[in-house]
Specification:
There is one protein chain. By secondary structure, the chain is an alpha/beta fold. It folds into 2 domains: about 120 residues, Rossmann fold (3-Layer(aba) Sandwich), CATH 3.40.50; about 100 residues, OB fold (Dihydrolipoamide Acetyltransferase, E2P) (Beta Barrel). The strands form 4 sheets. Strands 2-1-3-4-5 form a 5-stranded parallel β-sheet. A hairpin with a 2-residue loop joins β11 and β12. The protein is elongated and about 65 Å long.
Amino acid sequence: METFKCLIVDDEPFARSVLEKFIKKISSLELAHQCYNAFDAVSYLHNNHIDIMFLDINMPDFTGLEMLKTLQKPPKVIITTAYSEFAVESYEYSVIDYLLKPFSFERFLKAINKVVNSEEKEKTPRIDSSETKTDHIFIKVDRATHKVNLSEVCYFEAYGNYIKIYLLDKKLMVYEKMHEIESKLPKEDFIRVHKSYMVAVNKIDKIEGNRIFILNTEIPIGQTYKKDLEARISR
């Protein structure tokens, strides 16, 4: 089993102790070092190999984000902070996850799984996306099966036991659940923004507050989906 060397960078003793306890619970993680400020962390990283860095943002003199700007080849970074307002900015530095204090062990484990998944993707040989990417789906409307070109899809809306599919020039009603439709779509092109709505990313005209605008249609953004949307847009 692969072992991931971890570095904790946080000026709060309690926060460091929580992370240390969580790291010890996972056999594939090894706590290599702890730093109380970003200056010491930069110095340590220059001389030591680290796989995962748990990084606080709000530290005196030198913040976590300022530190990330100085690193040419940072390790996998998981932000650990009490401040939600830096989430979108942090993803500009390709952080793996953003944990809001206080976080549970289950939420911590989810972040670690993201690191493992990203490592596996990097090791997997890349295949030409033009050969594998889905550009259409087939759906059953009444007694007929329709081919739907994904380039024409603007958004999906849940409507009881049905799904309304809004295309550039027409609308279809299908007897399916949202998660069934979602499983057929390329994840990089479509995103769930509400329990009742899923949109095509390249059809978004504007995002304003908790609303998305597509072809002059206003679509609500659910609170539980907002972070994923912000992260997608920032990338």
